[in-house]
Amino acid sequence: MSLSQPDLWQQQMRAAQRGDAEAYRALLTALRPWLSAYFRRRLQSPDTEDLTQITLVAVHEKRHTYDPTAPFMPWIAAVARHKLIDHVRKYGRYVHVELNELNEPVDEASLGLPATIARRDVQVLLSQLPVDQARVIRLHKVEELSLEDVSRLTGKSVAAVKVIVHRGLKKLRDSVGVPRKVYEDE
């Protein structure tokens, strides 16, 4: 049984934006178990209830930003993801990443979340880096070009590309609160 009811939630949110208090109350009540499960899967911590409450407050404060012509699930997932990231940054906790049986990342499309959310998050992170560094990382890690191809495209040596990628990824890990010990052991 699925906890999410995207079509119903979208209707309730639209009604709430038109001032229907009963629909809004029903939406917040329905979101609670979904948010709790979302945070439990990603954060092995007793803080999941607090994060659920914080996210429900954020939904209340940001409900005017929801576009009623857009699907509801990507919007609520983005709100929850931002609250989770804020929490991890503040407390430096580990986040549990779900893997399927083959130890491959779970396809977010199968969760009803479009890849556009992940692409947007990568863009936001890369925008925190100097333009040249972000370009090199984007070419090598996102577009999956070889170090040699990135070297040819940028006019930098392969060694320089390696250093730029390494330092840039370290900056990004630090910016999202990944403890140094986790990636120094790699």
Automatic annotation (TrEMBL):
Pfam family, one: Sigma70_r2
GO biological process, one term: DNA-templated transcription initiation
Keywords: DNA-binding, Plasmid, Sigma factor, Transcription, Transcription regulation
Domain (RNA polymerase sigma-70 region): residue spans on this chain: 28-93
SUPFAM superfamilies the record matches: Sigma2 domain of RNA polymerase sigma factors (SSF88946), Sigma3 and sigma4 domains of RNA polymerase sigma factors (SSF88659)
GO molecular function: DNA binding; sigma factor activity
Residue ranges of every copy of the RNA polymerase sigma factor 70 region 4 type domain listed in the record: 120-172
UniProt xrefs under InterPro entries: RNA_pol_sigma-70-like, RNA_pol_sigma-70_dom, RNA_pol_sigma70_r2, RNA_pol_sigma70_r4_t2, RNA_pol_sigma_r2, RNA_pol_sigma_r3/r4-like, WH-like_DNA-bd_sf
Protein family (similarity comment): Belongs to the sigma-70 factor family. ECF subfamily.
Name under which the protein is recorded: RNA polymerase, sigma-24 subunit, ECF subfamily
Organism from which the protein derives: Asticcacaulis excentricus (strain ATCC 15261 / DSM 4724 / KCTC 12464 / NCIMB 9791 / VKM B-1370 / CB 48)
Lineage: Bacteria, Pseudomonadati, Pseudomonadota, Alphaproteobacteria, Caulobacterales
